[in-house]
UniProtKB/TrEMBL annotation:
Keywords: Biotin, Ligase
EC number of the protein: 6.3.4.15
Domain BPL/LPL catalytic per the UniProt entry, residue ranges: 1-145
Record protein name field: biotin--[biotin carboxyl-carrier protein] ligase
EC top class named in words: ligase
GO molecular-function terms, A-Z: biotin--[biotin carboxyl-carrier protein] ligase activity
One Pfam family linked to the record: BPL_LplA_LipB
InterPro entries, per database record: aa-tRNA-synth_II/BPL/LPL, Biotin_CoA_COase_ligase, BPL_C, BPL_LPL_catalytic
GO CC terms in record: cytoplasm
C-alpha cells in the first residue's frame, strides 16, 4: 500500500504491516480559514491512540506540525496529509490521510522511521489500532466543531503544546529557496504556526505550508 504525504512524499508499507487510510470530515461549523488545524488534530489523535493501544508503554509525541514520533529515540512512525475536497455546489469537505507503521519490522523501515512493533508494542491488530485512531479523531473533531473552530476555547492548543516534542528544542527550519531559520521552537499558535526564537532574540513565525523541513539543530 502507498500513500502521499506533504510535498508529495510517498508513504508505503507492505500488506498487513501498516495502516494507510483516509477520513472524510465535514466541519460545517468551522470557517474554512480555520481548517488548517485538521491535520494537527489528526496528529493528536494518533498520539492518543498509540497511548491507548499500547497501554502507555510506547512513548508517542508530535513533531510539528503533525508527524508522529514513536519510542524513546523519537523516530517517525506516522504521517498525516489533509486536503480540501470539493463536492457539488458550494459543498466542501476535508480529506485527512494517515499512514501509520504498525507491525513493520526493523529491516523494512526507512532511515529515521520506526513502527509500533519495532518499539516493543507486541502484537497489535490493525483493526484495533484503526478503531482507536478513529475514536480519538472523532472526539477531537467534536470539540473543534463544538467551539466553532476556536482551538483555544476548545483546549486543543493546550493539548497540542503538551504533546509537541518540537517545542523547547533548538531547530533548523528549511524554507523554500534554500533559506534556513535556526533557533528555539517556543510556541504553536491558534493558526497552527510555529514560533522560532532566533539567537539574536527576534521571533519568526512559520506556517506548515511554507516549510520544507523542520529538524533538531545539528542533524
Amino acid at each position: 500500500d502507498t500513500g502521499r504525504g506533504r510535498r508529495d512524499r510517498v508513504w508505503s508499507d507492505r500488506a498487513g504491516e501498516g495502516l494507510t487510510f483516509s477520513v472524510l470530515l465535514r466541519p460545517r461549523e468551522v470557517a474554512v480559514e480555520r481548517w488548517g488545524w485538521a491535520p494537527l488534530l489528526a496528529g493528536l489523535a494518533l498520539v492518543e491512540a498509540v497511548g491507548e493501544v499500547t497501554g502507555g508503554e510506547v512513548p508517542a509525541a508530535l513533531k510539528w506540525p503533525n508527524d508522529l514520533l514513536v519510542g524513546d529515540a523519537g523516530a517517525e512512525g506516522a504521517g498525516v496529509l489533509a486536503e480540501v475536497a470539493s463536492g457539488g455546489g458550494d459543498e466542501r469537505a476535508l480529506v485527512v490521510g494517515i499512514g501509520l507503521n504498525v507491525a513493520t519490522p526493523v529491516a523494512d523501515l526507512p532511515a529515521g522511521g520506526t513502527s509500533l512493533a519495532a518499539e516493543g508494542a507486541g502484537y497489535l491488530g490493525r483493526d484495533t489500532v484503526l478503531v482507536a485512531v478513529l475514536r480519538a479523531l472523532a472526539d477531537l473533531d467534536d470539540r473543534w466543531r463544538g467551539a466553532y473552530g476556536d482551538v483555544v476555547a476548545a483546549g486543543l492548543v493546550a493539548d497540542y503544546r503538551a504533546r509537541c516534542a518540537t517545542l523547547g528544542r533548538e531547530v533548523t527550519v528549511t524554507l523554500p529557496g534554500g533559506r534556513v531559520l535556526e533557533g528555539r521552537a517556543v510556541d504553536v499558535d491558534r493558526v497552527e504556526r510555529l514560533a522560532v526564537r532566533e539567537p539574536g532574540g527576534d521571533t519568526s513565525v512559520v506556517s506548515a505550508g511554507d516549510v520544507v523541513h523542520v529538524r533538531p539543530a545539528g542533524r
